Amino acid sequence: MFDNGIASSNLKMLRVHCKLFDLVFFFRYLDFGGEEQEGISALAKSYVGFPNMVNVMIEWLHAAGYRKREIQNLVEEHLKTVILRNFDTTKADLIFTEEVKEMN
């Protein structure tokens, strides 16, 4: 009834992609018959905690004398730079195209 080979390959796929779209891939993994506990473990192992790191950095900048508005500008400008450098319109189009196909 349940093919462990398919679940295993889907778990590997989940581990590779979960940093980008955790919940989407988690539910796809479950839809393909993956075990819930294995999926949760993969998500937990991939968690990096970027929001927590950003909060710590903001606190450090504040302690160093930066004003709230200066910190906000630094963060916003850095995010813009990262997004512009890494955003791939082809991948984004593919993701939305696949979601539309799945909805039909």
Structure write-up:
By secondary structure, this protein is mostly helical. The protein is 84% helix and 0% strand. It has 2 domains: 1-47, no CATH class; 48-104, no CATH class. Helix 1 packs across helix 2.
DSSP E strands, number: 0
Contiguous runs where pLDDT drops below 50 for at least 5 residues: none
Name the helix and strand elements from N-terminus to C-terminus, one letter apiece.
HHHHH
Helix content: over 70%
Give the helix tally: 5
Report the major sheet: none
The coarse silhouette is flat
Return the structural class.
mainly alpha
What count of structural domains? 2
End-to-end CA span:
27 Å
Cα-atom radius of gyration:
19 Å
Strand content: under 5%
Q: How would you state the average pLDDT, rounded?
A: 76
